[in-house]
Amino acid sequence: MENDSTTHQFTNQLIHESSPYLLQHAHNPVDWYPWGDAAFEKAVKENKLVLVSIGYSACHWCHVMEHESFEDIDTAMFMNEHFVCIKVDREERPDIDQVYMNAVQLMAGQGGWPLNCFTLPDGRPVYGGTYFPNERWNNVLYQLNDIYHKEPKQFLDYAEQLTGAVKNSELVKLNNEFDEFSLNHLKEMVDVFKSSFDTVEGGPSRVPKFPLPNNYEFLLHYNHLSKDEKILKQITLTLDKMAYGGIYDQLGGGFARYSTDRTWKVPHFEKMLYDNAQLITVYSEANTLTKNPLYKQVVEDTLAWIKREMTSDEGMFYSAQDADSEGVEGKYYVWNKQEIEELLKAKSALFCDYYRIGKEGLWEHENNILLRNEDDETIAKRYNLSLEELQNEILYCKESLLKERIKRIPPGLDDKQLTSWNALMIKGFADAYKAFGNQEYLDAAIKSADFIWNIIRNNDGSLNHSYKNGKATINGYLEDYSFMIEAFIALYQNTFDESYLMKAKELTDYVIQHFYDKESGMFFFTSDIDKPLIARKMEIHDNVIPASNSSLAKGLFLLGIYFENKEYKDLAKQMLNNVKKDMKGYPSGYSNWGILMTNMIEPSYEVVIVGKDAHALKIELNKHYIPNKILAGSLTNSSMPLLDGRFIGDETFIYVCVNNTCKLPVKTVEEALKLMCEVC
To answer: CB under 8 Å to 302, separation ≥6 — which residues?
Structure first.
């Protein structure tokens, strides 16, 4: 965001960065530094406190604080004189964000973005918070500077205490007391989960409402295991309400980051790649289970948006679209009724009824957020139209408005491409292909995966975290590896190309070498070759993105089966056992761990399809929702442990195995499904 009085009058050290968020601040009068030795050396030399200010490009309140304080000349001059100021893109440096978010949460009891943490010249935190209005911000700056120079020991003592707390928080201890994972463990977890359900509007019974797609992926898996109809009802209620709500871009596809209200009406309009990637997976799986055409439409429209607005020429996926355009949140997405009537003429009445214009959709300043509250059948009947006629009319209207919307000034685009988030999107495309058989989805997944492997991976086998303007930067974090491992496994399951399993194994072995902590049996978020921060953290809790440890544990479990590798399976079991005792108390924070537990509790069907018709049978099998199947296959002979010795000439066979015991091979999917039911 720019201020007319400061636009390009100033240029700071961020001008050399590639992050869109950092570049947004490159012409602030604040003398920002990127994270690095130069800033801390300056702080030591000049004996100044350091401000570590963390945000991301699509963060609305980050823009507000920039406009109010970081573009204010007087505020900036005080900051420059008394502090060394560092700007951090949390998406580029989640490791830094983890450390200082943890510190602020310990100090203030909560955190968020923008995150502003003040540290000693050695990086140890002493004070912090989130958004500060300008007057309060100036008071904080003055008081901190005054205390630091008059009573430095006060800060030194507190920094030592707080840094110790940061190092020791969220640590996981090795749990050597094993008992079998059971459905009862999951039932206790889900019973707590149920108490937080909004059974009228879907989602959690609180606002703001975040989609938290991994929660619903877990509940889908749990429902398959438990046959709990109340859980399935909550899942479909939530997915329906989100698909009908303003949180979903009814014209262009894609979900906003969260809803500010209970009914999913008013979103915080930023669109994040990681949310949409995971929601593609959830809606694809839910469609396979329920065959609800609404879910298929959501997937198709969201992936059309990804292809249209979020994909680079190399096939990589951009990070986010901003909430604001022309300095106004949501301006790009909302409509007044007169605009719609002028564009659609006689068709406007139907469209306005369909999307509740002037009714539930009415928002502020006479603008409307497009949303729905009735299904197509109900509206078609009211207008005496066939279902096909209604859908064609609505499609024509949507396309007309979308063409008009494209003429507007668009929200800002964060065009950096993150390996971890791209991996989630690769898996989303692969899961959509699995559900709907659209070859374009699989092609998009393969193109991105190949680019990461060939361009973003280094010669030593390590991954970079970020890519932009032809340059891969920042040594990869655990999430880059764990999500890519899962993405490669998904590609194997959809192509039967064994090279993807080999790539997943190669990344896994690298992770064990550079991230593993023998004392806890868990994995650090940063590599042992990274320059250390004040604390080396582990990511355990699942959030809007699954924890890198839970993701890796799932990958280890599957690769342990594919390669008959006991070390991998033991690691996965140990990791799950370490967190098992905490899962009941915080179910939404352990949902991905819950998925792993369902796989360890249920009979995992090793379904092996071998022969010339393997792909056709795989596609037919994938029409059935069987989350506990581990799929392998080949058109020819293979030495992979699950496939070795199972190729028989011109015939195609399906082998169903459970706990290393195989049934006689069969030739049809129907027969294979019956074999699975025999051991249900």
So the answer is: 253, 254, 255, 276, 279, 280, 283
